[in-house]
Each structure stands twice: as C-alpha cells, then as structure tokens.
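Example (one chain per record):
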Amino acid sequence: MLDDFLLRAALAGVGLGLAAGPLGCFVVWRRMAYFGDATAHAAILGVALALALEISIFAGVLAVALAAAAVVAGLGGRAHSTDTLLGVVAHSTLALGLVAVSLLDGVRVDLLGYLFGDILAVGRADLAVIWGGAAAVLGLLAWRWRPLLTATLNADLAFASGIDPRRERMVLTLALALVVAVAIKVVGALLIASMLIIPAAAARSFARSPEGMAALAALFAAGAALAGLGASFHWDTPTGPTIVAVAAAGFAVALAAGRAIRQD
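Predicted structure:
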C-alpha cells in the first residue's frame, strides 16, 4: 500500500500536522514565533553535521536544534535581549549551514529540498521517523499539558502550584526541536515555523477552550497538508510552499468567518 508516493506524502503531511498544530498553540500563546523560526533555521546546520558525520539527518537536525535553543535560553536577558539573540542564532546558523553544506566533498545535496521540503520523496523510513516524532511530541504535550498550560498563563501561579516555568519551557524546547527534525523533509527549514503558527492562529478564531484550540489546530494543519498536496499535484507547483500557501488562505478565511460569527 505504501508503494504509492502520493499516499506516503499524504501520511507524512498528516503526521506533521497532528504534531505541529497543538504545539503551535503554545508557540502562539507564549509569543515564541521567532524562537521557533530560529530553531528551524538551525536545521540546515544540522543537515551539514549529519552528512559530515554520516549519521541520520533526523539526529543531526535534532542535536543542532536543541543546541541552538539551549544557547538562546542560556544567554537571553544578559548582554542582549532575547529577540536580538534569536536573530543572531537564526541567521548565523542558517548561513553557517549553507556554507558547511557547500564545503562537503563528494556529497550531492539538494539544498532546495532541505530549505523548502521535498514531501514527494518521503520513503517508508522517513514515514517511520515522522510519525514516531509526532507521537513523541503528542505524548509529551499530553503528559505535561496542565503544567505547560499553567506556566503559559501565569508564571507566578505556576510557582505557587509547585511548577517550575523554566522546566516547562525546556519541555516546549524539546518538542519544538522534535517537530523541526521531522518537518524538514515535508516543508523545509524555511517554512517549518509557518506550520506551527498559521494553523494555531486559524484555530483561535473558533476555539472556546485551550484543548479545543489544540484539536482544531491539529485538524487545520493536517487538512492544509492534504489540500496543499492536492493543489500542488494539480497545478504542478512546489509542494512545501503550496501547503503553506493553502494554510495561509485558510487562515484568511477563518479570520473572516470568526469576525462574522462574533458580529452576529
């Protein structure tokens, strides 16, 4: 059944959407959009590291994404503001990754595939990685849902409840790194953050509870992946960018519908 490349692509898109949607809600609630972008840009350096050490792309991207997030978390608020550090980490890791990939001898690298994704080339091993990573992210969010939500709403309330907000932020950092590692094959390093932010922002127009918003975001992200894949196949456009474009169009529709509902 998995011999059909379109079916594999559809399963990959759905797997990514189910993980990115709920996690994206925390990214939106905590205003961590730029943090997610910086972590995603570091993925290219992880690709170069994986190719140089002859290890799996997933392991290389995960290691570098975690390292980049740890650097920002450790240095934020000291000599420079967090947003300044995020900008430095995002652009420097992307540039270093592109340079490092170009210096690899005897290795043919499809940079466009890593930058914008190549979901149509997903194989069975890639599917196992994507769905395994998605399951890990969803399991992590389900396990830490209440502490994460409390720390997101109010740090003082979290401390009073015996919850360490810094620990919950590290949980989110780990989940973000996992999503980046599994998403690079689907939408690429430059578009990963959009799959975290856009579905969550669209779901916000209709949600009445945090859990409802997370569920709607997952459905929206998975639907955008399937619709974008179909549109790409029909119009012969790049699949990763088409998925994001469909998600953006859906966000515009959701925003207009949400306003209409509130006015009635």
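Caption: The chain has one domain: 5-190.
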